[in-house]
């Protein structure tokens, strides 16, 4: 890391628990002031480490039917410094295959893009899993100053095998950012298997560390000098036609 005294540990989406039904998912959720987050605050302070908890089931005080899927960042003093609530929910109801995964059945959609946070390893942007399929979000975060994009995930096995690596490398290349993607792995219950392959990608698109499908730890140093070199040698930001992009409204032209 850029600061050899302080590191950041990244945990995947649903790092607090995975349940196999909506009732338990909602019932087991805690507020960000609950015991789970408090315990991680103590761990961070005791070990002088930052923690990225990539997907906490956050209970809502006024809603017993839904929760937030929340990525939180805790600093080495045990303070919660950022909370991002997932804005793109993974909904799939495929009649042909019989696969139904509807995150919106029990998760409330987030409404805010959280600006990147200054950390010992660089300016860190918070996202979650399915967010990686929407490059608009990563471009906005890059324009906000992001040097590191994060995609903690519980990617399904089938989509992971096809899209996981290529999308993470694409987000790194097009934004000239590091990408850190902690990932759930293996079979969680009869209904759910995650792809795994936690990965760290550098701003040139090279995979600098990764795990296999089994539980593991991937480690890498964040080299901000490399990041600046990549951006200087390939100055894409100078060439963006934001004067035209602002006209896009996603409506079919006639």
TrEMBL record:
The keyword Ribonucleoprotein does not apply. The keyword Lipoprotein does not apply. GO terms for molecular function: hydrolase activity, acting on carbon-nitrogen (but not peptide) bonds, in linear amides. Keywords: Hydrolase. It holds the Pfam family CN_hydrolase. Residues 1-224 form the CN hydrolase domain. InterPro entries: C-N_Hydrolase, C-N_Hydrolase_sf, Nit1/2_C-N_Hydrolase, UPF0012_CS. This is Nitrilase and fragile histidine triad fusion protein NitFhit. It comes from the Eukaryota. It comes from Harpegnathos saltator. The lineage of its organism: Eukaryota, Metazoa, Ecdysozoa, Arthropoda, Hexapoda.
């Amino acid at each position: 890391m850029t600061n050899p005294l302080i590191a950041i540990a990244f945990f995947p989406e649903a790092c607090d628990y995975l349940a196999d039904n909506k009732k338990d998912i909602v019932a087991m959720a805690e507020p960000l002031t609950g015991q789970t987050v408090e315990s991680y605050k103590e761990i961070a302070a005791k070990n002088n480490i930052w923690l990225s908890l990539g997907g906490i089931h956050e209970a809502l005080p006024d809603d017993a039917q839904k929760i937030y899927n929340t990525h939180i960042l805790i600093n080495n003093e045990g303070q919660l410094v950022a909370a991002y609530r997932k804005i793109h929910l993974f909904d799939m109801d495929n009649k042909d295959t019989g696969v139904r995964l509807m995150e919106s059945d029990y998760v409330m959609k987030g409404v805010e893009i959280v600006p990147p946070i200054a950390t010992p390893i660089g300016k860190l942007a918070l996202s979650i899993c399915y967010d990686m399929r929407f490059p608009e979000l990563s471009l906005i975060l890059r324009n906000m100053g992001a040097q590191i994009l994060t995609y903690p995930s519980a990617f399904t096995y089938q989509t992971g095998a096809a899209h996981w690596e290529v999308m993470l490398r694409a987000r790194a290349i097009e934004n000239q950012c590091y990408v850190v993607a902690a990932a759930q792995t293996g079979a969680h219950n009869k209904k759910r298997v995650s792809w795994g392959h936690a990965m760290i990608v550098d701003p040139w698109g090279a995979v600098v560390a990764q795990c296999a499908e089994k539980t593991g730890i991937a480690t890498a140093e964040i080299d901000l000098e490399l990041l600046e070199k990549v951006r200087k040698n390939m100055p894409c930001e100078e060439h963006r036609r934001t004067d035209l992009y602002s006209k896009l409204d996603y409506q079919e032209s006639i």
